[in-house]
Each structure stands twice: as structure tokens, then as C-alpha cells.
Amino acid sequence: MQRGHQQLFHAPDGLLDIEDCIDARGEIVLPPGTSLVSLIERNVVHVGDSVAYRFLDFARSEGDTSELTWCQLDVRMRAIGALIQQAVSRTDRVAIMAPQGLDYVTAFFAVLKAGAIAVPLFAPELPGHAVRLEVALGDAEPALLLTTRVATDAVYGFLRRLPGPAPSVIVIDEVPDAASAEFRDVDIGMDDISHLQYTSGATRAPAGIEITHRAFVTNLVQMILSIDLLNRNTHGVSWLPLYHDMGLSMIGFPATYGGHCTLMAPTAFVRRPERWIRALSDASGEGRVVTAAPNFAYQWAAQRGKPAAGEDIDLSNVVMIIGSEPVSMARMPGASHSGQPVCWAVWVRMAWTTFMAAPRLTIIGTRRLRTRRAPIDAQSARSPSSGLGHPRLQREWPACRSSDTACGYGSLRATSRASCLLRIRSFRCGLGPSP
């Protein structure tokens, strides 16, 4: 990708073109065989030597940087995927219990490439979340765990406290690249389950939602259209946890259009929020930047992340997504340190919106199994941003009210292909009640 603020709307040769995902009616219809795995394979072939993911490690020094190109990511995916294939059957669930970092990224994509179902969780050393982790593991019943060397003691100690037999464990940063030669390519169906996304557990026990490959990529395409990220010279910056739905979306963006994403640990942001602001400003020199965070993060950055006097911070090329509800309009302007306009977008959490807009849901509980029809409002609303620069994308989207479809029965699986479409109006619901 070229540096600077240059706009680049046409996909480089061989990469996914958003136009290929839109039919004559303006509906999102992915090309056959499209998944994050197939998109990464495209990136490997056509932009393989470009940086895919960058991690700023503040635990060792102030911003120690490590990077993965698409080709390096492919090798790691194949190496870890080969061991996964040897340990479990296809469609088994594989939990990721690792710290934030590039190893987590490679582990998640390796599970998908191996044809298994990823369960993105976190290392048990995360304070205050032991109960949530125990509930999620008990519900998911993974056949295999992936972790890193630094988290091994904590993982084994946690597993010893759980009832029943413990799953096998692979230490992913000890897997040699040479293991990639043993990987067996698999056919991945678009309606196969990609991963099991657990809700936060803030208001109830964590609930797992099975997300298909089709739904995952369609959500990413929908977001690109909805917040006008059609400029290919767009890159991500994120400290969101990679087990979080929006955190996964942030690493899904570059896989979709061949860009890159700069990551850091949530603790790095919380301790010194100016690190996030500085990373956004630095990335802004390469092109357009997209980031996402909840309300409190923007308020925290406005209070504690202000740059030193005279420091050159430019956020004018940054798109800031608020990914939580309710949205506080009062906190938006405070995060602009540059004195220049900042583009804001509002998005509800993927874990709920994936089934919130679904016409049909299978509700899986421990005591009952039933199907519920998710009400879709007959009215429709035109999105002002969904078709910027693309007349064919100007279309009506049905409204969907989150309050109509909220339920509490454990794991949820959207069974209709139409379920993967997010409704444009749904991301406005945090601003006020649905009309």
C-alpha cells in the first residue's frame, strides 16, 4: 500500500474487490468459496511480502515491535494447523487461551485453516475473569487448547482445578515452522462454523454464538460498506482483546482487503492511553486508519492520553468506531487531540448482531431446544453511508430491534443464510430507541 493520504478504491490484482460481493440489487452476496482462509491465501499469493500484522509490545520496552508478513503468517498457520489436524477431528472445537499478540492471531487463523472450530478465549492469568473462563470452557467442551510458553503454567494450573478430564494442550510458539510441511489442505464450506463467540458475561452467564465463515466475512464486508472504508489504503490500530468480537473484526479487516493492522495489549492502553493515540497518529501517515473502542476508552484517552505540549499528533485521517451501547455523544469530541475533525462511526457488538438480525434462530439450551422467529420490522431505513461512491449500493435495509430478539438460552446458531446480513439501522440503536 502506498503511504500518505492517497485514496485507493480499486483492489490490487488478485485481491477481493468489494464490488464482487454486491449483486445487481445491492445485496451482499459473497463469491463462492469465500472465507477468511481463502482471503488470506489470496493475500499470500499477491501481497505476500507485505506486513499483515504488527504488535507493539510494551511489556518489554516502550513499543518493542514485531511483525508478520502474509507469507510468514501462512507458514505459521500451516505449522500450527498441522498439529491441530493430528490432535483433533475436523469440526472439533479448539480453544485459544493465550495472551494478546501475534501468536494469538496465528493460532486463531490456524484453527480455521485446519477446518476446526475456534473458541477465542484468554489466558487464565487475566484478573477477575476466572469464573467466565470456567463457564465458557464448560459450555464449549473444546477437544484441544492452544496457548503460549509464557502462559503455560497458568493454563495447566487452571485446568487442574476444573472437574473432569482436561483437553490436550499445544504450546504454539514451540511449534517449528518445519511442521507446515505436514499440513493437509481442507475444503472449507462457507456455511461451516468458523468460531464460537462468547458474550462478555457482564450481565448474565457467557453465551456462545456459532458464527459461520459466510457470516464472519459478510459482517466484515458490511462494516466496510457501512462506515465508508472503501479506500483500500486503510489500516487498523487496535488494543481490543482478540477474544472479543470487535477485536476479531479488527484482525479480519486486513485479511479482507490485504492491508495491515497494528495491535497492542489492552493493558498497554489502560496504563498509558497515549500509546493508542500515538499509534493512531503514526499509522495516519500511511493512509486512512480505522480503530474501535467502547465509550470509556475514548473518555479515558481524553483524560489521560493527551499528548505533551508541542507533540505532533494528527488524527484527522482516523475513523473511530464506538463499539458499545449506550453511546455517549458527549464523549466523542473529547478524544480529538489534533483540533481537526475526526470521523466517528457507531457499531453494536458482533456477537449479538450476528443473530440479532437473523430471520430464524435455533436456540440451544441445556434443557430445551426450540426455534424462534426473530421479528424484523416491516419499515426500512436508507443508510447515508452504505453507498458512498457506489450508486448500486444505495438500498433500503430492514430495521431490526435488539430488544425484540434478546434471549438467554446458552448457545445460539443462526440457521438461515440471510442471518449473516447485519441491518444498517441496527448499529444506530445505541444512540436512542428504535423508531
Can you describe what's shown?
The chain has helices at residues 36-47, 70-87, 102-113, 130-140, 152-160, 213-226, 245-257, 266-271, 274-284, 295-304, 350-356, 402-405, and strands at 51-57, 64-69, 93-96, 117-120, 144-147, 168-171, 193-198, 208-212, 234-238, 261-264, 288-293, 318-322, 343-346, 360-364, 369-373, 380-382, 396-398, 412-414. β11, α10 (295-304) and β12 form a beta-alpha-beta unit. The protein starts with 35 loop residues before the first helix and ends in a 21-residue tail after the last strand. The longest helix is centred in the first third of the chain and has 18 residues, at 70-87. The model is unreliable at 333-341 and 346-435 (pLDDT under 50). It has 435 residues and is an alpha/beta fold. The protein has 12 helices and 18 strands.
Span from first to last CA?
42 Å
Helix content: 25-40%
Instruction: Give the neighbour order of strands across the main sheet.
Output: 2-1-10-9-11-12-13
**Outline, from the CA principal axes?**
globular
Bin the strand percentage: 15-25%
Radius of gyration: 21 Å
| Tally of helical runs | 12
Listing every helix as H and every strand as E from the N terminus to the C terminus, the arrangement reads HEEHEHEHEHEEEHEHEHHEHEEHEEEEHE
Low-confidence stretches: 333-341, 346-435
Q: What class would the helix/strand composition place it in?
A: alpha/beta
Query: How confident is the prediction overall: mean pLDDT?
Result: 75
Biggest sheet architecture: 7 strands, mixed
Task: Output the keywords.
single chain; 435 residues; alpha/beta; 7-stranded mixed β-sheet; 5-stranded mixed β-sheet; disordered C terminus
